[in-house]
Amino acid sequence: MVKGEKEKPLHSLIAGTTAGAVEAFITYPTEYVKTRSQFGGQRESPISIVRSTLQTKGLTGLYSGCTALVIGNSVKAGVRFVSYDHFKHMLADPEGKVSPARSLLAGLGAGVMEAIFAVTPSETIKTKLIDDAKSPNPKYRGLIHGTSSIVRDDGIRGIYRGLFPVSNSRPGQQLPSSITFGIGAIAGLVTVYTTMPLEKVSGGFGLEQRLDSYASW
């Protein structure tokens, strides 16, 4: 790639989504056990959760809600890769170099996009599917049915919230990941708005750079 040339978004998207999907599928059983341990009337050890799941639902039980995380992780990694490349290119100097401070800013911007558009919804849906799957009569028949049911019942906000009552009713438990990411998303929104002037300025520099390049032809 020519120095200063922007990485093709499609390449970043393919690399990110593939890496995210493989990572999510391989590590999902541990994610399942962790999420299960945050729900229920009594605390269970990871071994007892695995044993009871295998006895009642077999090996596939350890992958309940897996589709949501695989898709969410793919989107998450894809958004992160594409956003980071975009912000990094936008913040580069005329020679295509990015200072450590601007590289950090690009990473923060990518993290904000990732949290808002991928992490929070996928974590919320995944957690609700796992919690529903352990009940004797699950009401969700899968990812699509579960997501549509959540949106139908609670609206779009339903995939960004809904776990506060559960955590509040069980003092001493660790906050679910979706709540943590929700708080991070709110903080990310503040970051986006506070850094918008910098993005406007750097965007203007990028436009001038492109105009100069065109004028040299």
TrEMBL record:
One of its GO terms (molecular function) is citrate secondary active transmembrane transporter activity. It comes from the Eukaryota. GO terms for biological process: mitochondrial citrate transmembrane transport. It is a multi-pass membrane protein. Pfam families: Mito_carr. Solcar repeats lie at residues 7-90, 101-187. PROSITE patterns: SOLCAR. InterPro entries: MCP_dom_sf, MCP_transmembrane, TXTP-like. Its main location: mitochondrion. Keywords: Membrane, Mitochondrion, Repeat, Transmembrane, Transmembrane helix, Transport. One of its GO terms (cellular component) is mitochondrial membrane. It is found in: Mitochondrion membrane. Belongs to the mitochondrial carrier (TC 2.A.29) family. This is Tricarboxylate transport protein. It comes from Hermanssonia centrifuga. The lineage of its organism: Eukaryota, Fungi, Dikarya, Basidiomycota, Agaricomycotina.
